């Protein structure tokens, strides 16, 4: 059964007819955060949730339908085939996660993002056709571990160890231009930009001078960044 809820129905209908829309299945912490953020960014979103309580909770904030997405017929009925991107936010039930992802693969969804709660779960999702598997808990734990263990203020691992961080400038760079500090030659990392208090972010150039109160945005391999950030 698919039950359209009250409120914002027109947007839900628009999303289901647009190949640029995003279908978000499951409104737990991960799925609801995804759906709300996408909606805030102006994306056409349609959320699918089987729990009547969660549907009622989000009905005035998101275009949403109550449906069991483990059923291929339910997905067909709500127009899932018309969405170019789908996010499977179901993680606690391995069976439901796999069935929903498999249904979306069968529908020919161009991009399927699926949440996994373990490496084994992730491998299964990849084998049945998920294009992107995400590990929210593991990724958050890894990021926070880097933040609490050193001087990093933010940490984003892009791929294969390549990382972007926000950090305070080491003492040896303070008062010098980027060219003078020779950070890339000495540490193998690149200063992308500098943010001074009360000023807008600026992309780094050789003549950019670094002050003690600045924030640096730096890229490079995670091991090299940790070494650079450990400098006094």
Automatic annotation (TrEMBL):
Pfam families the record matches: TrkA_C, TrkA_N
Gene Ontology process terms (BP): potassium ion transport
Domain of life: Bacteria
Boundaries of every RCK N-terminal domain copy: 22-136
Domain RCK C-terminal per the UniProt entry, residue ranges: 177-230
Gene3D superfamilies: NAD(P)-binding Rossmann-like Domain, Regulator of K+ conductance, C-terminal domain
GO MF annotation: an example: monoatomic cation transmembrane transporter activity
Stated name of the protein: TrkA family potassium uptake protein
Protein species of origin: Sanguibacter inulinus
Organismal lineage: Bacteria, Bacillati, Actinomycetota, Actinomycetes, Micrococcales
């Amino acid at each position: 059964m698919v039950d359209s809820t009250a409120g914002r129905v027109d947007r839900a209908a628009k999303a289901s007819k647009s190949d640029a829309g995003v279908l978000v299945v499951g409104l737990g912490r991960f799925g609801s955060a995804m759906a709300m953020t996408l909606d805030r960014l102006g994306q056409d979103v349609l959320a699918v949730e089987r729990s009547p309580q969660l549907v009622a909770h989000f009905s005035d904030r998101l275009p949403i339908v109550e449906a069991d997405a483990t059923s291929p017929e339910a997905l067909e009925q709500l127009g899932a085939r018309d969405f170019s991107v789908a996010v499977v936010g179901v993680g606690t039930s391995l069976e439901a996660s796999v069935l929903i992802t498999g249904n979306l693969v069968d529908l020919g969804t161009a991009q399927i993002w699926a949440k996994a709660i373990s490496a084994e779960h992730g491998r299964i999702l990849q084998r049945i056709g998920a294009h992107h598997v995400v590990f929210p808990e593991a990724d958050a734990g890894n990021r926070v571990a880097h933040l609490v263990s050193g001087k990093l203020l933010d940490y984003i691992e892009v791929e294969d160890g390549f990382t972007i961080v926000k950090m305070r400038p080491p003492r040896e760079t303070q008062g010098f231009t980027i060219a003078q500090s020779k950070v890339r030659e000495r540490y193998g990392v690149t200063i992308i930009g500098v943010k001074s208090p009360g000023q807008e972010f600026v992309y780094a150039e050789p003549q950019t001078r670094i002050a003690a109160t600045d924030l640096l945005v730096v890229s490079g391999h995670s091991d090299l960044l940790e070494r650079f950030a450990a400098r006094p």
